[in-house]
From TrEMBL:
One Gene Ontology term of the molecular function aspect: ATP binding
Domain Adenylate kinase active site lid: 122-157
Top-level taxon: Eukaryota
Protein name per UniProt: Adenylate kinase active site lid domain-containing protein
A Pfam family recorded for this sequence: ADK
Organism: Xylaria arbuscula
Family that this chain belongs to: Belongs to the adenylate kinase family.
Keywords for this protein: Kinase, Nucleotide-binding, Transferase
Length: 211
């Protein structure tokens, strides 16, 4: 896969299926187990090699076909997992539903203008990767790294214009996704301006549901 490219849906779904199958939490899924480091098998065509963007043979079948939740997973609280960043669309969510039922979806809600303010206030020391924010983690000397004294820079995608465009695209894909899970009764939204506000609510709700 080219640098910065997204991992194809087929690859992600197969990795999820394989992991849950190996743990004994689902059964009956397509058997061609693989990981990100698995060698490309010989033969057929389909899907994408994440290293080269070339087709991966033998991965043209839906990994969710025949998958069923095992009794162990449905009854054992330890048979739990967290997905972060997937699914990103309603179509991906529907395909994931065919592999395993999702019982809780958390949507973090922070006002748009607050996010814009934080992004536009972010400065970076590129050689080290240290990140500063003039609103809550400002450098000791404005515009300079605390350790080396070297100048800080703002990334091109940290501009308000770029973020507004990205946010609009995000809304177009996330709204159908949230609606999908809301209809299933598993969507939970938490509102706040910072992790100090959001985290306590999240932990409290988690304990209420699962502990």
């Amino acid at each position: 896969m080219r640098t910065g490219g997204l991992v194809p849906d087929e690859m992600i779904l197969r990795l999820i299926t394989n992991e849950l199958s190996q743990r004994g939490w689902i059964s009956g899924a397509q058997p061609a187990f693989m990981s990100f480091t698995s060698p490309v098998p010989e033969g057929a065509t389909s899907t994408i090699n994440i290293a080269t963007d070339s087709p991966i043979p033998g991965l043209d079948t839906d990994p969710s076909i025949g998958a069923t939740l095992s009794r162990q997973a449905s009854e054992d609280p330890a048979a739990s997992f967290l997905l972060d960043g997937f699914p990103r669309t309603a179509v991906q969510a529907e395909r994931l539903d065919n592999i395993v039922p999702i019982n809780w979806v958390v949507s973090l809600q922070t006002p748009f203008e607050e996010v814009v303010k934080r992004i536009s206030s972010r400065w970076v020391h590129e050689p080290s990767g240290r990140v500063y924010n003039t609103t809550f983690n400002a450098p000791k000397v404005p515009g300079h790294d605390d350790i080396t004294g070297e100048p800080l820079v703002q990334r091109a995608d940290d501009s308000e214009e770029v973020y507004r465009a990205r946010f609009q695209k995000f809304r177009e894909t996330s709204e159908p996704l949230l609606e999908h899970y809301a209809k299933k009764g598993v969507l939970w939204e938490v509102h706040g301006l910072s992790s100090d506000e959001i985290s306590p609510q999240l932990f409290q709700e988690f304990e209420k549901r699962f502990l």
